[in-house]
Design a protein that fits this description.
This protein is of the alpha/beta class and about 260 residues long. The protein has 8 helices and 13 strands. The protein starts with a strand and ends in a 5-residue tail after the last strand.
C-alpha cells in the first residue's frame, strides 16, 4: 500500500473545427494538443467548488436484515458480559469500575452488563462538530453528514517523477498541503504517509506541527498511548487559543481506536 503524489496539470479543451486530415494527422494533432495542455499558465489555479459538506439524503443500503443485525448486537453483548475486554490501563479500569462495570484486577478484564452498554449508547450524540483553528472549515461528524479525508498509514509514497520511495516528512508535508488546497478534502487523515525518516517517539509531534502550520482543517491524531493523544489536544488548544477544558466543548481533532 502506498500513497500518491501526482503532478497537478491543468487541462484545457482544445478549440474544435479545422479541416479533415488523415488518421495519422489526427493522432499527431491530438498528441500535440495533449502536450500543450500539460503546460498550465503561470499563476493559474484549479477550479473547484467551495469548501463544504454533503448531507446524505438517501437511506444507506441495508447489507444485512434487521434480524441479523440484532443477532450480532446480542452476541456482542454476551461477549462483553461473559468474556469481557482486557484493559491494561489502571485508569481506564477505574473509570469502568466507577460506571458500574465488573473489574477483575488480576486478569485486567472488564465486563459490562447489557444495561450498562445501553446506557452508554443512549448518551452518545447523533452527531458532533469538529471546529479547527479556522472555523470556516468546521465539519459535522455522524448523522447524515460525511466528511472526506486523506488516507492514513501508507508506508510508501509514489509519484510520476520520483517514483516509489519510503515515507518521509517532506512528502508527508506535501500531502498535507495538497489536502489543505483541495476543498473536496474536509479533513486530514493521520499520516497520509508515515514519515519513517524521523524518530518514532517524537514523530507524532512533528506531524501534528505540520498539520497545524501547513493547514487549518480538522485532522485525525494518534491513539497509541495517552500521552500522544494529550499532546495533540494541547497543541490544538494552543493553536485555537484555549485550554483543555474549553476543548471539551469545542473539539477539533478525532482518532480511531481498533478493538
Amino acid at each position: 500500500m502506498h500513497n500518491l503524489i501526482a503532478p497537478l496539470p491543468l487541462c484545457y479543451a482544445a478549440p474544435g473545427g479545422g479541416s479533415a486530415g488523415t488518421a495519422q494527422d489526427s493522432t499527431s494533432a491530438r498528441s500535440s494538443r495533449r502536450g500543450r495542455t500539460r503546460r498550465a499558465p503561470a499563476g493559474q489555479t484549479i477550479q473547484q467548488q467551495p469548501f463544504g459538506q454533503v448531507e446524505r439524503c438517501i437511506k444507506p443500503i441495508d447489507l444485512i436484515s434487521a434480524d441479523h443485525l440484532e443477532a450480532i448486537h446480542q452476541a456482542s453483548l454476551t461477549i462483553l458480559q461473559e468474556i469481557g475486554i482486557e484493559y491494561m490501563s489502571a485508569r481506564a479500569r477505574q473509570i469502568f469500575r466507577d460506571a458500574g462495570a465488573e473489574v477483575d484486577e488480576a486478569s485486567q478484564m472488564v465486563r459490562l452488563t447489557p444495561e450498562l452498554v445501553d446506557q452508554a449508547l443512549t448518551s452518545a450524540p447523533e452527531h458532533f462538530t469538529l471546529t479547527p483553528r479556522n472555523p470556516a472549515h468546521a465539519i459535522k461528524m455522524g448523522g447524515g453528514f460525511w466528511a472526506a479525508g486523506s488516507v492514513a498509514g501508507p508506508p510508501q509514497v509514489h509519484d510520476g517523477i520520483n517514483g516509489r520511495r519510503p515515507g518521509n516528512l517532506a512528502d508527508f508535508t506535501k500531502l498535507i498541503q495538497l489536502s489543505q488546497y483541495f476543498n473536496a478534502v474536509q479533513m486530514f487523515g493521520y499520516h497520509p504517509v508515515s514519515p519513517i525518516d524521523i524518530p518514532a517517539n517524537t514523530r507524532h509531534l512533528d506531524t501534528y506541527y505540520v498539520c497545524q502550520t501547513q493547514g487549518d482543517k480538522a485532522y485525525k491524531i494518534s491513539a497509541i498511548g495517552r500521552e500522544r493523544t494529550q499532546d495533540a489536544i494541547d497543541m490544538m488548544a494552543i493553536a485555537k487559543g484555549m485550554d483543555r477544558e474549553a476543548m471539551k466543548h469545542e473539539p477539533a481533532i478525532v482518532t480511531t481506536i481498533s478493538m
